Amino acid sequence: MPTVNAARLAATGEDACTVLHVAVGEMPVQVELLRRPELVGTAVAVTGGRGVVVSATAPARRCGVHPGVALSRARRLCPPLTVLTGRPVQVERTWAGVLELLRSLVPVVEPLGTGTALLDASGTARHGGPVVLARRVRDRVADEQGLTCSVGVAGTRLVAGLAAAAAAPDGLLVVPAARVVAFLHPLPAADMPGVGRRTARLLEHLGLRTVADVAHAPAATLTRALGQVTGRWLHEAAWGRDDRPVTAPASRRAVTARAGFARDVDDPALVHRELLRLAVRVAARARATGVAGRTVVLEVRFADGTGLVRSRTLPERTDATRAVLAAASALLDGLGLQRARLRGAAVRLEDLAPSALQPRQLLLGERTPGWREVDGAVDRAGLRFGAGSVRPATLLETSPDWFPAAGTPAGGSVVGTVEDWSPPDALPGGPGWWAVC
């Protein structure tokens, strides 16, 4: 460990910089470049399957290719652009690995979403201070995950986040308390957290273009134009005042799986197939975290952007794929959608509690082993061969969200057969329902 120079930390103000904002920029495209290293340094865009860019490399962004740009326009802006289909499941899995890495360095990590997290660096002075910790974070994320990230170090969540944005895509910026105002005030007012397009237009109408303009505007003017909450927040934030602590999230309140369709779908058979895929994911995630839920929630998003949410409470908590699927399917059928065109769907398991503490009601005539043993066998296969190595036969067609297990190249031979499992009765659905791919 590096030697701590307390006098230097106190002189520079680094000892008070107890918040680290870690941002893995353009994570979807970074994840794709891990398996396509020959494309590093070239113009690459990742699409979500609906003809819109969701992530792009720096050379592509310099040509005007940004998230939200239509793919057809992106190709015109950047003719040498390479387009890849994103893999949301792999992005989530990679981000989970980053979070585990961060939690091994500090006890309090607050995820803000895929690719961003806050770290509480209090008490790190004996290990070299927050700046040494920030360097270690960047080095380990690069070495262990193959990703670049920017880190902002400051005394508040607000300033740390803006520092990380200024250091992007692969840098480190420290903003001690003495430099907060000098750092904030030259920034555009639109860069402040909580300032969306509408608020930015209102500030522009008031002639407030920089953070300095907002800081020196009367608080009454801001609250009158933007409302009490937003106005007060911006007035305080413009001076770098933010007393929100970094807190580790409470125990998980829900387990969710979402899917956006590559094109609008109106075929009930296809919708039910995607529902099966979502139910498999939700139940597997619940079992992996040791929880069971009692309420199954179904969300559907229509082609026009509107949506519906329906829920069903089960007699007892469950983490079984079959139970989650049955409830979600019943909710979908109850909507009576006929041939309504859907853009996406989600399945969520709520009212969670530790699965080990849940009583199990035995059923008369229930076979042993049953569906619980099926789920256990599938989970063990996933640990051995990779997630998705055992799936319902209905889902055997390759999707963008699935990738081969490690050591099994695309188009390669199967890694096993149903007969490999012992006892064979562990798969009561038989090879017609479950298959090893």
Would you kindly provide a written description of the structure presented here, covering whatever features stand out?
With 437 residues, the chain is of the alpha+beta class. The chain folds into five domains: 86 residues, Reverse transcriptase/Diguanylate cyclase domain (Alpha-Beta Plaits), CATH 3.30.70.270; 63 residues, MutS, DNA mismatch repair protein, domain I (3-Layer(aba) Sandwich); 53 residues, 5' to 3' exonuclease, C-terminal subdomain (DNA polymerase, domain 1, Orthogonal Bundle); 111 residues, DNA polymerase, Y-family, little finger domain (Dna Ligase, domain 1); 71 residues, no CATH class. A five-stranded mixed beta sheet has the order 5-6-1-7-8. Strands 9-12-10-11 form a four-stranded antiparallel beta sheet. Helix 11 packs across helix 12 and helix 13 runs antiparallel to helix 14. The chain is globular and about 75 Å long. The two termini are 47 Å apart. The N terminus and C terminus are likely disordered.
Ends distance: 47 Å
CATH architecture of the largest domain: 2-Layer Sandwich
Number of domains: 5
Number of strands: 14
Rg over C-alpha atoms, rounded to the nearest angstrom? 25 Å
Mean pLDDT: 80
Beta-strand residue percentage = 15-25%
- Total count of helical runs of at least 4 residues: 15
| Percent helix | 25-40%
The CATH topology of the largest domain comes to Dna Ligase, domain 1
Question: Structural class of the secondary structure composition?
Answer: alpha+beta
| Name of the CATH superfamily of the largest domain | DNA polymerase, Y-family, little finger domain
As laid out across the biggest beta sheet, the strand order is 5-6-1-7-8
Shape: globular
Top-tier CATH class of the largest domain: Alpha Beta
Return the string of H and E elements. HEHEEHHEHEEHEHEHHHHHEHEEHEHEE
Biggest β-sheet, characterized? 5 strands, mixed
Query: Which residues form runs of ≥5 with pLDDT under 50?
Result: 1-11, 398-437
